[in-house]
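With this grant's support, we have settled on a layout for protein records. One resulting record is reproduced below.
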Amino acid sequence: MDTQDVLNCVFSAWYPKFKDITIKSHILPLPKEFLDYLQADGVVLPEQSVTASGKHDEDDIEGEELDVDWDAADSSETEMPSFPEFESLMKKIIKTLGGSVFPKLNWSAPRDATWISFDKTLRCTCPSDVYLLLKSSEFITHDLTQPFLHCKDCHNRNNITVQYELILRKWQNLASGMEFRCFVRNGKLIAICQRNHTEHYEFISMMKEEIVSDIKAFFYHMVAGKFPSKNYVFDVYRRDKGKLLLIDFNPFGPVTDGLLFTWDELEGLKGERQENDQTQESTAVETSGETSKDQDLVFRFVEQPEGVQPHPYSCFGIPEDIKDLTSGEDPYKMMDLLNLKIQRMGEDQEHSSDEGD
């Protein structure tokens, strides 16, 4: 994976060419002050979004006593940032796209931050929803700080200037079992994987030949030869038989989640015919009617309910201290917890002794 392969996957680099087969989206260049805000420590929402979200109709507050002095409460807090023009543009775009959008930056969406949203999705109806997700996401931080981390020519990354952008995509209620990740190497489709690999969908096993056939046809007719890199990953959504929707492009390398594949496996797949020696959760699907250059590819999915795995993003909603304690990565925190427990036990015993007297 080279830096150019990563740059080819920037949303604004591929969207104009594939906009007719993907979700309608708007691209907003990020002003410097907003970029600085995203990289700053802490989660403080901009002033306009807080003011707007704090407004209520008189009917909503009838019978309630609101005696909080908000000015006094805010006086000791960090100064709120302000992006009036940028926020106004966001509101217009959200309205244009039907009132609900899916946010992302150049490469990543804040999927690891869904734990903080009201409905546990990336659906945003106002700028404050977007701010909260972006500021709470480690994926977004990765985009901003080290997008070329796994590149072979990463020594040249200091010479690359990235124009960061906010992408607002029209919200779609997609059935998670119908989204698939596809791996392309040397211009050939070598592997397909169930995108939501933490669930078992019985219909995938029953429709596997049709799914593979549709994805191969979509790839060779709509994608192959049009994307500039030879090695890449793309996600598709199968709405119905023969009807697919392009979701995104990603680099072919460890920066992209291999899901039910390891990257050692994917690096070893070159499109040659392979024996069906995969584990129980995978299957190699043969397709007919292709020329000799279109060799068999590997289609991997969860075949049995026993193959279901924990959701990979569930750990992001757990405080760092708790994760350190449960994993044993920070022994000093464990010692502090034990000392605190011993101290409380001593206080309880002293209190019981006093009551007995």
